[in-house]
Design goal:
The chain has 643 residues and is an alpha/beta fold. Helices cover 30% and strands 14% of the residues. It has a domain at 327-628: Aldolase class I (TIM Barrel), CATH 3.20.20.70. The protein contains 18 helices and 19 strands. Strands 1-2-3-4-5-6-7 form a seven-stranded parallel β-sheet, covered by helices on one side. Strands 11-12-13-14-15-16 form a six-stranded parallel β-sheet. The protein is elongated.
Length: 643
C-alpha cells in the first residue's frame, strides 16, 4: 500500500466534521512494497478480533466526516471490512472509500459484499502495467494480472474507481505506460502522490529530482488529460510551488501543500512566495536540501501560481497552458448581500485553446502569464480529440498570448477542421498577419478572427501595448484578413484612458476599416486571474457609460456593425445613459441562460429580473463587484429589449 503511516481517525475531536478523514483498518498487508515505510507480516492478530469495530464506532461518535477513507496496510484483508463500511454509512458518512492494492478483491463476492454494505469508491493503487515491473516494486507476483480482474469486478458492482500512484524513483518510468493503461479502463480520476518518506525505515533515495524527470511527467500528464482523465495530487499533497521549471510548468500538480510536515530550506529565503508557501516536505528537504527548490523571484509568475495550481482556473492543460472550456452561465452566487441566485443552462460548445503564452505586445490591461511554454501540435490535436471523445464537436478558438507566434498555426487550423470543428476562430492582434499568412490561414480553414485594436490613434495604441509600430501593422493585418475572406470582429477594450475616445474609434472604423466582413465588439478592462499588468487602466462601468452611448449612437449613424456588446467582459446596459436608445439597432450578447459562464460567476441583484436587458446581460464579474460593489446595477424598467 502507499499510505503505510496514514494516521488513524482516532485523533482529537474536531469542532466541525471534516470533509474527508482516513481510518487505519489494519497494518496487515498483501504485499511488501519497497517504498513502504513499514514492512509488516501478511497477517496480524487484529484480523481475528472485533477491535476495529469499536475503534471506528468511538471515532464516529466524536465526528462524522462526509467521506471516510478506509486505509492500512491492506484494509481489504480484514474480514470485518463490510461491517465497517455499513457502520460508517449508518453514522451518516455520505461516502465511504477503501484504499487498496486490490489483491484480495480478486474474489468477486468480496467486492459485492462491500458494494452491498454501502461502499461508494475504490482507490486502487497502480504501480506498473505488467507483472514483472510490479513485482520489483511490491515483492509480490501477479499484481497487474490481479488488478485487471479486480477492475472488472468493481465495474460489475457499480463502484466508482480512482487510480492512485505514488510518484518516486521506482514508479516515474512507469507513468507513461500507466497513462495508457488507465485510459483503457473506466477510470477517469488519477491521483499522483508525491513520495513522502514516512518513518525512519522509509527509503530516502526514492525522492525525485522533479526537474530531471519533468519531460516524463509532462508526457504522461498530457497523455492522461488527452484521454479525459483528471490528473491531480490528493488534496493537500501536491508538489511545492517551485518543484517544476518554470514554476508552473505542471501547474495542475503544483498546489499549496498541507503545512504539516513541511519546512523551509535556506534557499527559500530568496523566494517571493515564502510567506504563503508552506515549504518542502520534510523528508525531501532532509534528502536534497536547497537542491529541492528553485526560489521564485518574479512577482508576476508568483501571482499566477494559484491560478495554474488549482485556483479558479484549475484545469491546466498539457505543457502548462490553461483550459478555458466554456461552461453554462451561472447567475450570482451569495458572495455579496442582495445578489440573485444561480441559474443553470446549457453549455456553449467552444473549446478555447491557449496555444502560446508569448506575445509581441504588453497591453497594460492584460492578465496573461507570458512565460509559459507553447502547446505542441500534438498537444493541440490531443485536446481536440478529447473533446470529440467527450461527445462534442465544438468550434475551436486559438488564443494566446499571440497565437500567430506559434510556428504551426496554419497546420493547427487545418487539423482542427479535419477533426470536425465547424468553425475555427483566431484571437490575435494581427500585427504579424500579412496577405500571405492571411491566405494561408483561410486555405487551412480559418473562419473568423477576433482582432484586438484599442485606439484610433497610433501613438496611444503603441503606448498602451508597449509595442511601438504594431498599431500600423495591426491595421494592415485587419485588411489582409478581410481580403482573404475571413470574418473579422474587432475587439476594442475600453480602459480608463481609451474609453473617452470611443466615439473617435468608431469614426476611424467607419472611415478607414469599413468592410462587409468586419464588425466591432467592445470589452471593459478588468481584473481577471492574476492581472492586469497596470491596474490604473481599469475603469468603472459608470464612468464609461456616457462614452459608450456616444459611440453606439455614432456607430448606428455611420453603419458600423456593433455586436456581442454584453458578453461576460462586456458592457452592462444599465450603466449606459438611455440604454434603450443607445443599443437600438445593435446586437447584444447571446441570452444569458444560453451563454458561456464566467468562471468567477456573473453578479446581479434580484431586481435585475425586472430589467429590460435581463436576458442578455451578464451583470458584473465577481472580481469587479468585490472592488466596486453592485450599486451601479439599477434595472431598466421597460418592455424587454429587442434588437
Amino acid at each position: 500500500m502507499t499510505h503505510a503511516t496514514v494516521p488513524a481517525l482516532e485523533g482529537s475531536a474536531a469542532v466541525q466534521a471534516p470533509d474527508e478523514r482516513p481510518f487505519r483498518v489494519t497494518d496487515a498487508c498483501a504485499a511488501h512494497c519497497v517504498f513502504c515505510a513499514e514492512h509488516v507480516p501478511r497477517r496480524t492478530p487484529d484480523l481475528a478480533t472485533d477491535a476495529v469495530l469499536d475503534r471506528l464506532r468511538q471515532a464516529l461518535v466524536r465526528e462524522v466526516p462526509r467521506r471516510l477513507v478506509l486505509t492500512g496496510g491492506e484494509p481489504t484483508l480484514h474480514p470485518r471490512l463490510p461491517r465497517l463500511v455499513a457502520m460508517a454509512r449508518q453514522f451518516g458518512c455520505a461516502e465511504v472509500e477503501v484504499e487498496t492494492l486490490g489483491l484480495p478483491l480478486v474474489d468477486p463476492t468480496r467486492v459485492q459484499r462491500l458494494a452491498d454494505a454501502g461502499l461508494t469508491r475504490v482507490r486502487l493503487t497502480l504501480l506498473a502495467t505488467d507483472d514483472t515491473a510490479a513485482e520489483r516494486l511490491t515483492r509480490t507476483a501477479g499484481v497487474v494480472t490481479a488488478q485487471r480482474t479486480v477492475l472488472g469486478h468493481l465495474a460489475a458492482a457499480g463502484l466508482a474507481i480512482t487510480a492512485q500512484t505514488p510518484v518516486h524513483q521506482g514508479t516515474v518510468a512507469e507513468l507513461e505506460a500507466l497513462a495508457g493503461f488507465v485510459a483503457s479502463t473506466a477510470i477517469r480520476r488519477w491521483r499522483w502522490q508525491p513520495y513522502v518518506a514516512d518513518g525512519p525505515a522509509a527509503p530516502r533515495d526514492l525522492h525525485l529530482d522533479t526537474r530531471a524527470v519533468e519531460a516524463v511527467l509532462r508526457r504522461a500528464f498530457a497523455s492522461a488529460q488527452a484521454a479525459g482523465i483528471d490528473v491531480a495530487p490528493p488534496p493537500g499533497r501536491g508538489w511545492h510551488w517551485c518543484a517544476f521549471s518554470p514554476a508552473v510548468q505542471l501547474g495542475g500538480l503544483s498546489v499549496p501543500t498541507s503545512a504539516g510536515g513541511h519546512v523551509h530550506v535556506p534557499a527559500c529565503a530568496e523566494c517571493v512566495v515564502r510567506t504563503t508557501c508552506p515549504g518542502v516536505e520534510r523528508s525531501l528537504a532532509d534528502h536534497r536540501g536547497d537542491a529541492a527548490v528553485a526560489p521564485i523571484r518574479d512577482a508576476r509568475r508568483a501571482a499566477w501560481l494559484p491560478v495554474h495550481g488549482g485556483g479558479r482556473d484549475a484545469g491546466v492543460g498539457t505543457g502548462g497552458h490553461q483550459r478555458h472550456d466554456l461552461l453554462p452561465i451561472a447567475r450570482a452566487t451569495d458572495a455579496l448581500p442582495g445578489m440573485s441566485a444561480p441559474r443553470a443552462a446549457e453549455p456553449v460548445h467552444e473549446l478555447v485553446l491557449r496555444i502560446v503564452h508569448a506575445c509581441n505586445q504588453r497591453c497594460g490591461f492584460c492578465w496573461v502569464d507570458f512565460d509559459q511554454p507553447a502547446m505542441t501540435l500534438t498537444d493541440i490535436v490531443a485536446r481536440i480529440e478529447a473533446a470529440r471523445v467527450a461527445g462534442r464537436a465544438p468550434r475551436i478558438a486559438f488564443t494566446g498570448g499571440e497565437p500567430t507566434l506559434h510556428p504551426q498555426l496554419a497546420e493547427a487550423v487545418r487539423v482542427a477542421r479535419e477533426l470536425g470543428a465547424p468553425a475555427v476562430t483566431l484571437q490575435t492582434n494581427a500585427a504579424r498577419i500579412d496577405a500571405t499568412l492571411a491566405q494561408a490561414l483561410a486555405t487551412a480553414g480559418l473562419t473568423d478572427a477576433l482582432v484586438s485594436l484599442h485606439s484610433a490613434d497610433a501613438a496611444v495604441s503603441d503606448a498602451l501595448t508597449a509595442a511601438p509600430g504594431t498599431w500600423q501593422r495591426s491595421v494592415a493585418g485587419i485588411g489582409a484578413l478581410c481580403a482573404a475572406g475571413i470574418e473579422v470582429k474587432l475587439n476594442h477594450v475600453l480602459t480608463r484612458q481609451t474609453g473617452p475616445a470611443f466615439a473617435s474609434f468608431v469614426a476611424f472604423v467607419a472611415d478607414h476599416l469599413a468592410h462587409p466582413r468586419l464588425q466591432v465588439s467592445v470589452a471593459v478592462a478588468g481584473h481577471i486571474d492574476a492581472g492586469p499588468l497596470d491596474p490604473g487602466l481599469l475603469p468603472t462601468h459608470t464612468e464609461l457609460g456616457p462614452h459608450v452611448a456616444a459611440g453606439l449612437h455614432l456607430a448606428r449613424a455611420r453603419g458600423v456593425r456593433m455586436v456581442g456588446l454584453t458578453h461576460p467582459c462586456g458592457v452592462v446596459p444599465c450603466t449606459v445613459p438611455d440604454p434603450l436608445a443607445a443599443f437600438a439597432g445593435h446586437t447584444l450578447g447571446a441570452p444569458a441562460e444560453d451563454a458561456g459562464r464566467l468562471r468567477d460567476g456573473g453578479v446581479k441583484v434580484p431586481a435585475c429580473r425586472e430589467c429590460a436587458f435581463d436576458k442578455v446581460c451578464f451583470g458584473v464579474r465577481q472580481e469587479y463587484s468585490s472592488r466596486h460593489g453592485i450599486a451601479e446595477l439599477v434595472p431598466v424598467r421597460a418592455a424587454a429589449w429587442e434588437p
